[in-house]
Predict the structure.
Amino acid sequence: MIKVSGGTKVCALIGCPVEHSLSPAMHNAAFQHLGLDYIYVAFNVPPERLGDAVLGIKGLGIYGVNVTMPHKINVIKYLDELDEGARLAGSVNTILNRGEKLVGYTTDGLGALRALRHAGVDPAGRKVVILGAGGASRAICFALANHVRELIILNRTLERAVKLADELRRVFSFVGVRAGLLSENVLEDVLKDTDILINATSVGMKPNINETPVKRELLHGNLTVFDIVYEPLETRLLKEAKSVGARTVDGLWMLVYQGALSFEIWTGAKAPVEVMREAALKRLGEKE
Ligand code: ATR
């Protein structure tokens, strides 16, 4: 059991909905493991209450906050300062309360980078194909753009991919970025010599577990396949990638590492990632 005293530091998640979040289990396990006097709770904050909720962070002295859907962009206008990464990506998932100032960070994209590195895959100098051009893809693209040789963004709605690629080109002067339509023809063409394939769409997520964004025949053993979907933990895409000899990374690693990076921003302590992953897995199992 977590001991709560008058001096316990409170961290929180704000989002809507938050009931099924794995973050409380993950962070409380980490605090407990390191014997830190912190507690993490989740607040369900509807969009019209976001401003009040952020004022409450200062008012109540809440120490650190995670921000999730649908507030990652709108929360920015209530903050005092943004870290460089959050400013570039235009998204915040972590707030540090420095007393006078609320500072916004984003750990989503770096979490993905750490997840890849944890699996022994360094995207530096690699050719990467990312599927999707929504918020998750955007966060990952901003974290990868400085490292990879080539980044191809494929999306069902071509215009969104084009817009994201244009922005990356502008922000990073990154000429190795291209956009395309998420279609079988294009996939067939680009995947042959690709090193890392990232699914940042929701295709394959529960309850649509029989769906996959890429046919098995287009996958190969030289690929690392990273799926940001973590329900189910082993998506059809990952199962089929494994079956052709590709290296696989599941979406729970990204969740764990974005959490680990937030934890480090708040506590200054090195996050116990294995403990966090175990706690998240246990919570996932309880939800089954
Ligand atoms: P998130 O913030 O999780 O990325 P999002 O902004 O709604 O959520 O983005 C979801 C992504 O999954 C988008 O790239 C979306 O494609 P569109 O831009 O065309 O909507 C993609 N996506 C969702 N369902 C899909 C499907 N059935 N087939 C292909 N792509 C899909």
